[in-house]
Amino acid sequence: MECESEEVENDTDFFDLGGNSLLIAILVDDIKAVFDVDIPVDDIYEFGTLKEQADIIREKSGKTEEKHHERVELLPMQKLILNSVKNDKDSSKWNLNVSFKLEGKTDIDRLKASFMKLCGMHEIITGRIVSIENSDYIQVGDILQEEPVSVIYGDDEGELKKMLDKEALRPIDVFNERMTKMFIYVADEENAYLLLKASHLIADGWTLNLIFEELCGIYSGKIEKTADDHYADYVIREKEMIKNVYAKGEVSAVSDKSKKLLKDKKYTPDTKCVPPEYVIVGNDRFEKLKVFAKENKLSMFQVTLSVYHASIQEYLKTDSSSVAIMQANRSLKEYRNTAGLFAKTVLTDTESKDVKEIISDMKKQTGVLIKNQVISLGDNITADKNKFEDFVDFMITYQNFNNGNMELDGIHFLPNMISGSEAVCPMTILFFDTDSYLMGTVQYSPEYFRREDAKRFIEVYQNKTDELIG
Length: 470
Hints:
Blueprint: H1 21-35, H2 41-46, H3 50-61, E1 71-73, H4 76-87, E2 95-103, H5 108-121, E3 128-132, E4 135-139, E5 149-153, H6 157-168, E6 180-188, E7 191-199, H7 205-219, H8 231-247, H9 257-262, E8 277-282, H10 283-295, H11 300-316, E9 321-327, E10 344-350, H12 355-372, E11 394-400, E12 406-408, E13 411-415, E14 427-433, E15 437-444, H13 451-469
Parallel strand pairs: 5-6, 9-11, 11-14
Antiparallel strand pairs: 1-4, 2-7, 2-13, 3-4, 6-7, 8-15, 9-10, 12-13, 14-15
């Protein structure tokens, strides 16, 4: 059955779209895979519209119409990101990707069915953007969208890897395709690649980690079903929290300090996508950093943020810095299953040059920010500043991702590095905290920095880290 998503309304009849007995059998199987609900074939004949079939699925799965919301308003940060997407439709900077090489015999059909089931557990995963009367919404719970999983076969592993890299850098059309998808590139029975791809409109790095954990849990049979949470309920709660923070006057202003420092560092690059550089803190240095954090009652995030501030000041030869931080709101355990807990983006400022003074400053700032976790740059949006780029020059994100290099039912998951990326802002550092090392992926815009600049910045960061731990 081929039709455009715009052709499908709640009252559109399955058979008016070309449905037949063969497609009914496929539809029934897909409903079972995604929603874990058995629908009799006779019900499809009797209840042919999308709304009628959705009602049957809710009834049989125990979900009620009362709690289901088809269209959900965007939160302030989502509006800001969507403005950026609209202003640069060819940009891939709002893509979120995580990739693994799969070594061992992978049951491709089982992996595919596991992701289909995962989509049924999280209505936001099936979301896409819809525009109605000049307003944008996230439409969740769409049943009739394109397949969420693509499987690509090939004999040349190198070519498959190139295809994966190309897909990772392809911008997601948030209006016409689902905003979370999985791609499996199969070389042979023992070797394949996995790519999880999502839009930052509905996810952050922690969300991808959550999706991967649950995908593995479903594949291994350890997860059958998650709680019945709704993304719309999460959005209502977030808006109420934002309203309360505004009432207390806790919304911070945006600084232009670093922008003034960058205004003369402007190039005309050949491409926006460049290979990331890496900063790795491992072995003894990582252990010493953990001891320092514990002794000073700091999170590793506060330490890395402070060193980032100090490194920017030394690199740019200035005595102040502004850094945006992105951190997922992990305190909302009751809304974990919406998979929509994307990061809040907030700004931290310091005029101190001494690393330990910066740490003291950042401890106070991030303590307040992490406690509230509802203030975002999106809340500071104004009519004449509607682009994300107007706010952020240096950004840091931090996440725990302990799933790399793991074994599951005969499959060895090895982290697969994607060859290129497009930075969200002039320079971004993404830290991954594992049990044995701390790795930062430094993404930079070639409009402002060259590769040698990024390498020099990493040297400064390493030196500042060494100064801190003696």
